[in-house]
Design brief:
globular; 9 helices; 234 residues; 71% helix; 2 strands; two-stranded antiparallel ribbon
């Protein structure tokens, strides 16, 4: 069985991936723009530029720039012990403020896209691995790529380099990545349901969830973080 701190990191990764999927689903339905999945935004921006639909390229381009800004800010931040806790609280409060701004018609779509995408970029820097497995909360293509690799190596019976113990195997890593991918999918499904029920209050759900994570996060649950880990698809 995995050590307790690895199990806690796994639960945290699943919860945050669900938040990212939820926020992404809301952005797609509300703004026709991904708020955490920048691969999709890059495709949208390029395709719209290619057909000279410059107005349609603006929202996804804004999201890309804002997400990158969030990642830069998170990696420029000094790394005190409670860095992750602080980031989650900031992200949760920011999502809540954005939710209120949309509800009261104080925020236009472009600023809302920028604020939320920046928050998702910042959140990505606060959590980067489960045990020795680098994870990315929003890069689901990378998760599926690594999932397939681990499954193939498990099928060949190959040993896992850098294993933390007998419990740490290719099959176990594959199960972890499948859980993160599934959590992202479930988050998007929940966003589809909530958007129809809550309207502009939809972002209140992930706001409260991330604030809760920040308030109750233990000192070792976020794990070590680095600029490379936070943005690596490997």
């Amino acid at each position: 069985m995995a050590p307790q701190h690895v199990r806690k990191q796994t639960r945290l990764a699943i919860a945050l991936a669900m938040v990212a999927g939820y926020v992404d689903g809301f952005g797609l339905l509300k703004f026709s723009t991904y708020l955490s999945f920048m691969s999709g935004n890059t495709t949208q921006t390029g395709a719209n530029l290619g057909r000279a639909a410059f107005g349609l390229a603006i929202p996804s381009a804004i999201a890309i720039g804002a997400f990158l800004a969030g990642v830069i800010l998170g990696n420029l931040w000094s790394r005190p012990e409670k860095h992750a806790r602080t980031v989650f609280l900031i992200v949760g409060v920011t999502l809540g403020i954005t939710c209120a701004g949309l509800r009261m018609l104080l925020l236009d779509p472009f600023p809302a896209i920028a604020i939320v995408a920046c928050s998702m970029g910042l959140m990505n820097t606060a959590f980067s691995r489960v045990g020795n497995e680098p994870v990315n909360l929003t890069f689901v293509t990378g998760a599926l790529n690594k999932l397939g690799g681990h499954l193939a190596r498990a099928g060949k019976g190959l040993p896992l380099n850098g294993a933390m113990g007998d419990w740490d195997t290719h099959a176990g890593r594959a199960a972890l990545l499948a859980s993160i991918w599934g959590a992202f999918l479930i988050g998007a499904v929940l966003a589809g349901i909530a958007t129809g029920l809550l309207g502009d209050w939809t972002l209140l759900v992930p706001a409260l969830a991330v604030i809760g994570v920040g308030l109750f996060l233990g000192g070792t649950e976020a794990g070590p973080s680095s600029a490379a880990d936070a943005n690596s698809p490997d």
